[in-house]
Amino acid sequence: MRPAGMILGIAGGVLGLLGGILVLAAAADGDISAYGEAIMRIGAFVAMCAGLLGLVGGALALIRPVLAGVLMLASALVGFIGAYLLYLPAAILLLLGGIFALIGYRDIELLPAPA
What is the pTM of this model? Predict the structure, then answer.
């Protein structure tokens, strides 16, 4: 389950970065008020940071699955709050990747101590 968590986490992180860039492009369009534009820019920044957090979580899925799962779940939640529907595909992938990484924690077998 950990390799699936890694793949889903990396794909979700990349999609999250793309979602943040799309929100930033929509904010720069200029068809909204200055206040709305500032809110959208903050949401885009939050979504891009969450996408980076998801990438880090995906990269850590094989080494530290519990930390990776928590990072991916947090990234899914925070990114969805920041960019809403443009972050939805990334949030779904990160949510699944975080669950798979946490389930994969049970698959780790403790190696015997060297003699």
Answer: 0.87
